[in-house]
Each structure stands twice: as C-alpha cells, then as structure tokens.
Amino acid sequence: MQNHNDTRNHTARKRSPLVIIFITIFIDLVGFGIVIPVLPLYAKEFQASETVIGLLLGAFSAMQFLCAPILGKLSDRVGRRPVLLFSLIGTSIGFLIMGLGNALWLLFLGRIIDGISGGNISTAQAYIADVTPPDERSRGMGLIGAAFGLGFIVGPAIGGVMSQITPAAPFYFAAVLAAANATALYFLLPESLTAERRGHGHQRPSVLRMISETGGWQLRAVMATYFFATIAFAMLTATFALFTNHKFGFDATHNGYLFAYLGLLGAIIQGGLMGRLVKVFGDKALAISGIALLAAGMFFMPSSETLTTLILVNTAIAVGNSLATPTLNGIASKSVDAAHQGSVLGVMASSASLARIIGPAMGGFLLSRDPDPLYGRTPYWTSAAIMLVALAIAATLSAPVDVVETGAVMEERSGEGT
Asked: Is the separation of the CB atoms in 345 and 122 below 8 Å?
C-alpha cells in the first residue's frame, strides 16, 4: 500500500508539481494581496496612529520570525505538504478574525494567528528546491515571484472593489479563499520530499553547523543582504497606503489598482523573463541590479508630485524587487545540500520576518514625525540608505556553487559523530 502511494505521488510529481505549487501560492497571494492596500486604512477606522499601524503590520512578522524556522525544519522531517496545509488553515482563521473584529486588539490577534502559521512561502521555496536542479533553481524561485506578481494583480484590485461593500468584506473573502486553497492542496498537491530524506532529517547537523561548514561567508552574506533589503522594503510597503492617501488622496481602491500594476510587472519579469535573465547575467548581477533600483526608487519616492512620477518611481521599485528576491533565494538554496534547503529557506524567511518587524515599526514611527510638506521623506530616505548597506554586502557575493557533494560529506561526518 505504501509503495502504491509512493508511486502515485511520484507520478503526480513528475506530471506537474511546479504548476500545482504555483497555483497554490497564487491563490494564497491573492488573499494576501486583497488585504495589503486595505489593512492600514482599515486600522485607521479604529483610531490607530501611524506607529500603531506599523506595529500591527509587524505583528505578523514577529510571529513568523519565531515560527518560520520551526516550520522549515518540520518540513524537512515530515514533508512540505502538511506544513503548507497548516499554514493555509491558519491564514484562513486569521483573516476571519480580522473580518469579524470590532476592536483593534482583534486585528492584532488575527495577524498573530496568521503569522504563527505563516510558513507557506519558505515551504513552497523548499518544495521547488526539491524538484528543480541547481541550474534551474532561480528560475523555479521566480515562479513564486510570479505568483506574487499575479496575486498582486488580482488581489489588490479585488480588495479595493470589495472594500466599497463593507470595510471587512475583503477579509471575509480572503478567509474563504484560503480555506478553499487548503482543500484543493489536500487533494491535488503531492509530497516532494522523499521518505528517505525525511528519515535522515533527524541525523542532520544543526542549521548553525550547516551554515558554518557548507554555506560559509556566502550564505551569511546572502542572509545579511536579504535582511537589510527586507527592512528597507518593509518600511516602504507598511507606509505606502498612508503616504498615497495623505499626498494624493488615494483610498483602498486607488491603491489596489496601483498595486495591481506593480504586480503585473513582477509577474512578467519573474514568471516570463527570469530564466533567460539568469542565464545571460547570472544571479549575482541581477541581485545587485535589483537592489540598486530599489535604493534609487526609495530615494526618489518622496519627490513624487504627480501620478506619472509616482508610477515611474514605483516601476523602478517593482522591477528591482522582481530581480533581487528570487535570485537571493536561489543563491541561498544553492549554498547548502538538498536535505537542508527547507531549513535554510526557513531561516531566510525568519530573518526576513525579523526585518518586517523592524521595518514597519520604524517606518510608521518615522512617518508620524514628518511635517506635512515633507511627509514620507524621513522613512523613504532611511530605506534608501539601508538598501545601500544591502548593496555593499551583495557586492561581496561570489557566483553560487552547488554543494551536493559537500552535503554528502556532512552526512558522513554527522554519522561518525553519532
């Protein structure tokens, strides 16, 4: 019976694993995209200040910071599929609480529940790493970026339109969508991690030892780059709806359409062009170019005085993020052996979550201190400066090398120590 199930899963995995995981993440990101342009303005209805809104957005990441490494390690031991299921169910519950909430503390509770179970992206990255060879890894990671992009085309537009029904309607819709996604995943998604790899998970050395013995400076540098870049980007995204509302009078609908445009750019680059770009330019060059574009876009954001300049600046930011994120994750996954990819990508997600605690809190605080004519200048110029730190670290990266052989040596060492 077990052999029959393994054969069935192997057949399904050979057939279309990337298509299924893409659809899974796309639906999840539609729900996430629905809320992004709505939540900051929704929180203002509960008299939340810019600083409190920053803390609200950071609450999700605080829980994810604590739980993502646990979920990543768990996915290495029990498989990717059950962790993805747990994450989607938690997301559905979190959104439902936010929709039902009639007080600010309930919004915090919903974000916390969603954050505790929020290991879906890093687990999906590990899934892709399981089923793609190293030379196609960044292209595979680009599929998640494309799902982000498409999710941000459909999601924010839906959120903006549904917010006109009731302010809570987008949250109810996102909850139903996550529940439907969990149901579809249960029936359609095969497990990507073989029983043999799961069986060896208990014998692997720790993540810290793995970083020291396999990743070395390369893995430390890519994690540091990812961390600082995420702080800067989180400062931007957490305050963007407040900035456009203050400076341009945008409501959730306007912001939804703008996010949809940015998502379209992300989908085109990460879904259609990433594979070719990596082959021509390489991971490091794309990561550096993306970070440089992000720094420039953030620096010029406060100078946006017209809709045209706002769109141009955000175009640079969207292109930069589309180039940097998948390549950094691809470099990280190539820096360790296959059995540790879930753990490492979980640590990457955890470091990003820590950055998303710092970024929104810092961004909201700095935004609340800006006088009216200069609204947005302090957080966005600070973001640009932090992005330059990420750029300096990224410049020290070398071309990623597959470490499957190194991973085999680590297994041998681990076995000798037991």
From this structure: yes
**Location of structure tokens 């957080």:** 379
Q: How many CB atoms lie within 10 A of CB 220?
A: 15
Q: Is residue 38 within 8 Å of residue 254, measured between CB atoms?
A: no
Angle between helix 80-100 and 17-35 (nearest 10) = 20
Cα 162 from Cα 35, distance rounded (Å): 10
Q: Are 364 and 52 in contact, with CB atoms under 8 Å apart?
A: yes
> In this predicted model, what pLDDT tens digit does every residue of 232-273 receive, in sequence order?
998 988 888 889 988 888 888 888 888 888 878 887 887 778
* Domains defined along the chain, listed by start: 11-417 (1.20.1250.20)
Contact 33, 146 (CB under 8 A): no
68-84 exposure pattern, b = at least 16 Cβ within 10 A, e = fewer = bbebbbbbbbebbbebb
Percent of the chain having pLDDT more than 70? Answer: 81
Q: How confident is the model over 300-344, as pLDDT tens digits?
A: 999 898 999 999 999 999 999 989 988 887 887 777 666 666 667
* Whether the Cβ atoms of residue 307 and residue 331 lie closer than 8 Å to each other: no
**Residue 234 contacts residue 360 (beta carbons within 8 Å):** yes
Locate 206 and state its tokens.
């720790």
State the Cα–Cα distance between residues 308 and 133, nearest whole angstrom. 42
d(Cα 314, Cα 282) in Å, to the nearest integer?
24
Residue type, 382: T
DSSP code string of 63-119 = HHHHHHHHHHHHHHHH-HHHHHHHHHHHHHHHHHHHHH--SHHHHHHHHHHHHHT--
Question: Which of 85-94, 142-151, 170-179, 207-216 bottoms out in mean pLDDT, i.e. has the lowest?
Answer: 207-216
C-alpha neighbours within 13 Å on the C-beta side of residue 305: 3
Q: What are 85's two structure tokens?
A: 């299921």
- Please state, in angstroms and as integers, the Cα–Cα distance from residue 248 to each residue in 241, 290, 393, following that order: 10, 27, 35
